[in-house]
Specification:
The chain has about 250 residues and is α+β, with helices and mostly antiparallel strands. It contains nine helices and twelve strands. The strands form three sheets. A seven-stranded mixed beta sheet has the order 5-6-4-7-10-12-11. It has a three-stranded antiparallel beta sheet with strand order 1-3-2. α1 packs across α3. The radius of gyration is 19 Å and the shape is globular. The N terminus is likely disordered.
Length: about 250
């Protein structure tokens, strides 16, 4: 929940470092995100000063894309976060999966199918970069991705589905997204949040994205503008290994 309490300098630095750990982001994006959680005066100035401090300490680095400076955590920055067990409570986990992978290999052969996979993942990674996500690992037929902002995760999922649908390779894509607390160890992530996201992906069909009600609520709170399409309710789904049903929606 947003708070009017002014964060101290050390706390703000950690929050900035957390947000840059998910992928490249701009100063404006960081300011907008922190303004929602800390609606205090002069947030933009504090973010700018925090970024320069983190860069000086070797925890964040920057580069320019299309004339705009982007920031991302360095390996030292990621290690510093891991040592502190820090992770935003609203972190969103996305799983993607190619539908019909076995059939594709049978039809095209291993080499051609591998080329299709490479083109497919290039499309997905382009969307991930644009929306500030961070790829955790490649699972063979899919990706595990983290987002600091659940609204960005849903926007990314929409773009992924649109681009894969328009692609000449005609591969099917399913996506699952959930948000919540994560357990971090040696650069990987674990816990119920990860399991639910994976199970939601398993329940989706080709061209579908299934998200939890929690993701939808967080995205609605954090969205900068109204979205033209509302997720369609799927009711409470019984997911393997999860003791309680999870309320879910299909993303339009």
């Amino acid at each position: 929940m947003p708070t009017s309490r002014k964060p101290d300098a050390a706390e703000l630095l950690l929050e900035i470092l957390e947000l840059t750990s998910f992928g490249t982001t701009t100063q404006r994006q960081l300011t907008n995100r922190l303004r929602r959680t800390h609606p205090v005066r002069r947030v933009a100035n504090r973010v700018e000063h925090g970024l320069r401090t983190l860069i000086a300490e070797g925890l964040v680095e920057s580069d320019f894309k299309d004339g705009v400076e982007h920031f991302h955590a360095t390996r030292a920055g990621l290690a510093a976060l891991e040592q502190r067990g820090r992770m935003p409570s609203s972190s969103a986990v996305m799983f993607t999966d190619i539908v019909g992978s076995t059939e594709m290999i049978a039809e095209l052969g291993e080499a051609a199918a591998h080329d299709c996979r490479k083109r497919h993942f290039a499309l997905l990674r382009g969307s991930i970069d644009q929306h500030g996500g961070r790829e955790v690992k490649n699972l063979g037929d899919g990706l595990m991705v983290l987002f600091a902002d659940p609204a960005a995760a849903l926007d990314c999922a929409r773009q992924m589905q649109e681009e894969v649908d328009a692609d000449a390779d005609n591969l099917g894509l399913r996506i699952g997204v959930h948000a919540g607390e994560l357990l971090r160890e040696h650069g990987d992530y674990f816990g119920t949040t990860v399991i639910v996201a994976s199970r939601l992906c398993d329940r989706a069909d080709a061209g579908e994205t299934i998200v939890s009600a929690h993701v939808r609520e967080l995205a609605d709170q954090q969205a900068d503008s109204a979205r033209p399409e509302r997720p369609q309710p799927l009711g409470k789904l019984h997911l393997k290994g999860i003791p309680r049903p999870v309320e879910a929606f299909q993303l339009g």
